[in-house]
Amino acid sequence: MLEVRDSKNGFIVYDSDADEEVMVFTTQRDADSFVAELVIAEEHAKLQRWSLDRVPATW
Fold first, then answer.
1. Cα separation of 1 and 17, whole Å?
2. 17, 23, 44, 48 - which has most CB atoms within 10 Å?
3. Residue 46 buriedness (CB in 10 A; 0-12 / 13-18 / 19+)
4. Would you state the torsion angle of the CA atoms of residues 45, 51, 52, 57, taken in this order, to the nearest 10 degrees?
5. pTM for this structure?
6. What is the pLDDT of residues 14-39, one digit of tens each?
């Protein structure tokens, strides 16, 4: 899960699943925008892989 953390060097996008820093930004707005773009891209990729053929008939 990505989260934005405040630090003395700016704002850090941190991946809590991998337990590592991803990128440092000078403003929280830029860090939040980066996280939002990644989340949107991930959901878009999921939708691209989705197909009605994969939905069970009993659903």
1. 6
2. 23
3. exposed
4. -110
5. 0.76
6. 999 999 999 999 999 999 999 999 99
